[in-house]
Amino acid sequence: MVEELLAAVAVVGSAAVVYVAAAARVVKQYEKGVVLRFGRLRSGVRGPGFTMVVPLVDRLHKVSMQIVTMPVPAQDGITRDNVTVRVDAVIYFKVVDAAAAIIRVEDYRFAVSQIAQTSLRSIIGKSDLDDLLSNREKLNQGLELMIDNPAVEWGVTIDRVEIKDVSLPETMKRSMARQAEADRERRARVINADAELQASKKLAEAAGVMSDTPSALQLRLLQTIVAVAAEKNSTLVLPFPVELLRFLERAAQGPGAAQGPAAEDARRPAAGPPAAALHVHDPHLPDPMDAMREPAPAPQVRDDDAGTAGCI
């Protein structure tokens, strides 16, 4: 009798051990357990720690509540300004409703990955190249909003979306490099011209001061000589004022030298008498030289001739 009782206790103990081994579950701290009994969702979600389920009746699904880092594969697209680019990104998300992540979507990780890729291609087509390169914060916010709208129904919230890299064709890179070089050259020329303008104004002010005070010009010349001599070279530059050269030129001409147009006329050789011109007279035309000859004396008429003429 005792042996049969011990055998029954052993059998019951073995069955209990097998039952506990089959029903025992451990949920980690960063996980939550969703229990489906005969395919129907149990109301309560199992928290972290030790928990029991009914073997062959309940099925426990563990859902990680950690932030998931998922890379988005590089997507080829054409921007709004017709530039072909290749953009990849990374998305950070986490599950906030374990039951919805199990019930409402078959595989929430795959679903989030697909919606992230389609949203990335859509954001590329709506943006310009300059926005992709310099205004990524705004694009990240728009991409996060596009992914988060459908993901909320799956019990998933998007924590952050970042565009990692934008790949451009080599021809576009060279064009952008030339554009940047031309822009820098333009700014350098503008700065140089502005500096020349400021320097000319300062030089004009300095010239006005030196014209009022001639000794300032002499001091400036001495400073220039000192600066040249400080280089330890064998060449000495001695500038001469223009006023000194003009003074020497006037001294070389002498005090009695004629000035002006009268002096030029005096230095010209005296003109001689005009040369005789060859005169050819046409007998059929009046001779212009007749006006220059003395008139011929009138013929004298005698009285007897006059009387005779009157008689006739």
Main traits of this protein?
3-stranded antiparallel beta sheet; disordered C terminus; alpha+beta; 10 helices; 50% helix
Describe the structure.
This protein has 312 residues and is α+β, with helices and mostly antiparallel strands. Helices cover 50% and strands 21% of the residues. It contains 10 helices and 8 strands. The strands form 3 sheets. Strands 3-2-5 form a 3-stranded antiparallel β-sheet. It has a 3-stranded antiparallel β-sheet with strand order 6-7-8. Strand 6 and strand 7 (84-95) form a beta hairpin.
Task: Describe what is shown at a glance.
This protein is α+β, with helices and mostly antiparallel strands. The chain has ten helices and eight strands.
Number of helices: 10
**Shape label:** rod-shaped
Oligomeric description of these chains: single chain
Helix content: 40-55%
> Cα-atom Rg, whole angstroms?
59 Å
What fraction strand? 15-25%
Q: How many E-type strands?
A: 8
**What does the main sheet amount to?**
3 strands, antiparallel
Contiguous runs where pLDDT drops below 50 for at least 5 residues: 260-264, 270-281, 301-312
State the order of secondary-structure elements, H for helix, E for strand: HEEEEEEEHHHHEHHHHH
Mean pLDDT: 79
Roughly how many Å apart are the termini?
Answer: 223 Å
Q: Structural class, from secondary structure content?
A: alpha+beta
- The strand line-up of the biggest sheet is 3-2-5
